[in-house]
Structures are given as C-alpha cells and as structure tokens.
Amino acid sequence: MSIETEAPERKARDRHQLRTLVLALTLLAGVLTVVLVTIGSATWLNRFWFLHYPLGFYVLAQGLIIFMIACCFWFVRAQERIDRARGETEEIG
Q: pLDDT digits over 21-41, tens only?
C-alpha cells in the first residue's frame, strides 16, 4: 500500500522539479542572449552618449547588472508561484 501512495507523490515531485528546471534554463538562456547581444552591439552603442559616458560602456557597466538583478527577483517570484502550486512554501517567523 505504501507503493501506491508514493506514486502520485513522486509524479508531483517530478513535475515540480521539471517546472523548476525549465524556469531556470529559460532564465539562463534569456540572460545569456541579452548579455551576448549587448556585448556584440557595444561598439555601435558607443556612438551615443549617456551621462557623459559612451552608451555601450554604460550599458555594459551598469545596465546589465541592473538587468540581472531584476531577473533574479523575477526568478524568485516565479519560483514562489511554482512552490505555492505544490504547497511547499515555508513560512518564516
């Protein structure tokens, strides 16, 4: 009887792990794409200026960091939704 009750739990756990993996790989692919496109277009962006700096330099120095931090916050929010759907959130306090 124990085996019968473990099967649905295993399916739910596998589904949760798959959704988490897909989320992580999607975010990683998106971030890498943005970084590579930005690096590739930096020389073209350097023709424009922002705050007395070439735009390509500014985007590489500041913009990508801000973008990656925003992606981290988005990832946490999306992961919380996945965890809540399975009922695995932990309350602190």
A: 999 999 999 999 999 999 999
Distance CA 86, CA 71 (A): 23
Considering the entire predicted model, what is its pTM? 0.74
CA distances from 56 to 32, 61, 62, 70 (A): 17, 8, 10, 20
Instruction: Please list, in sequence order, all residues whose beta carbon lies within 8 angstroms of the beta carbon of residue 16, skipping any fewer than 6 positions away.
Output: 82, 83, 86, 88
Of 31-35, 40-44, 87-91, the one with minimum mean pLDDT is: 87-91
Structure tokens at 61: 């120095």
Q: What are the Cα distances from residue 11, in Å, to 28, 29, 31, 77?
A: 26, 27, 30, 23
Inform me whether the pLDDT recorded for 10 exceeds 70.
yes
In this structure, are residues 38 and 64 in contact, taking their beta carbons and an 8 Å threshold? yes
User: Phi then psi for 92, rounded to 5 degrees?
Assistant: -100, 130
